[in-house]
Design goal:
Number of strands: 15
Distance between the termini: 18 Å
Largest sheet: 7 strands, mixed
Strand content: 25-35%
Structural class: alpha/beta
Shape: globular
Length: 319
């Protein structure tokens, strides 16, 4: 079996294929022959040595795949803690779900990490209710576009931010009611101008240090801010008096580090509550680019340079 090995040399990624034995599924695992794997920012952190896989999980990069079950040929998707950027992967059975009917299998690789991340942080951690208002930062990323769609599917009003004017149309196409270019406009002022003060029920924030104070300003009483990454840094100052006044909750969240049992429970809910949206047409995977394995380094570089709108995928084979 071949798998991707990616290193950084002089500011650019270099990818090569290494060889390993075919994974042997342990109890409770299934073998998947990978059709495509999704590139995520977590991959870049792992390459940099800042985000190792949980103990006992594969050291190979890759948190999501589509492919076919080795035993039955059934088309599936899988959420992983590692091992996805490879020809085959042994995946926990509870983290595997059917690929949506009518969706090509390469595109389906863009579902597991992004849509499950959006689901767990908006619905499970954020407690999103119908007719709520949601703020999504980095709205044109894979997770951002998934979050906008899930929020709209849940009956919410959505404002999303980006630092590139070129990405505003993607936010609007995904269903965003208000799209803000934060390179030129202050998101707090824009939200207050359009919807008034204290308008937001749930914030999905992968940016961190530079946005969390503003998140608190626009938050309603008893609202929630869910922090899922720290792209602008992990240390910031916060008005604790305002936090108490609003009875706000700031929730720290990760998906990769959760136990297999917890992930299986999340996937089970996702299958019932969200997955049918792909078949009905209410949800779609926004694909930025699909790279062949031979150009995998370009896929990682594209994400590092923040040029993507939606998912970057690596195609291992065409089914």
């Amino acid at each position: 079996m071949h798998y991707l090995r990616v290193v950084e040399e002089q500011g650019r990624y270099v990818a090569s294929l290494s060889e390993a034995g075919l994974p042997t599924p342990a109890r409770g695992e299934v073998l998947i022959r990978v059709t495509a794997s999704g590139v995520n920012r977590a991959d870049l952190s792992q390459i940099a040595g800042r985000y190792p896989p949980p103990p006992g999980e594969s050291e190979i990069l890759g948190l999501e795949v589509s492919g076919t079950l080795d035993e039955t040929g059934e088309p599936v998707c899988a959420l992983l803690a590692g091992g996805g950027h490879a020809e085959c992967v042994a995946a926990p059975a509870g983290q595997v779900f059917p690929a949506p009917a009518g969706l090509d299998l390469v595109t389906a690789a863009g579902i597991p990490e992004t849509f499950l991340t959006a689901f767990v942080n908006l619905i499970v951690e954020g407690g999103l209710q119908r007719e709520a208002t949601v703020l999504v930062h980095a709205g044109a990323s894979g997770v951002g576009l998934a979050a906008i769609q899930i929020a709209k599917l849940s009956g919410a009003r959505v404002v999303a931010t980006t630092r590139s004017a070129d990405k505003l149309k993607a936010i609007e196409a995904a269903g965003g009611d208000l799209a803000i270019d934060t390179a030129h406009r202050d998101f707090v002022a824009e939200i207050e101008k359009c919807w008034g003060r204290d308008a937001v029920d749930v914030v999905l924030d992968p940016v961190g240090a530079s946005t969390v104070a503003g998140d608190l300003q626009v938050l309603k009483t008893a609202g929630r801010i869910v922090i899922l990454s720290t792209m602008s840094g992990s240390e910031t100052s916060l008005d604790l008096a305002l936090l108490m006044k609003k009875r706000a909750r700031i929730v720290g969240s990760t998906l990769r580090a959760r136990s297999r049992a917890e992930k299986a429970a999340i996937v089970s809910r996702f299958k019932g509550e969200i997955l049918p949206g792909f078949t009905s047409g209410a949800l779609r995977v926004v694909v930025d680019a699909v790279f062949p394995v031979a150009r995998a380094a370009d896929a990682f570089q594209r994400m590092r340079e923040n040029r993507n709108v939606g998912k970057i995928l690596i195609a291992w084979r065409r089914d």
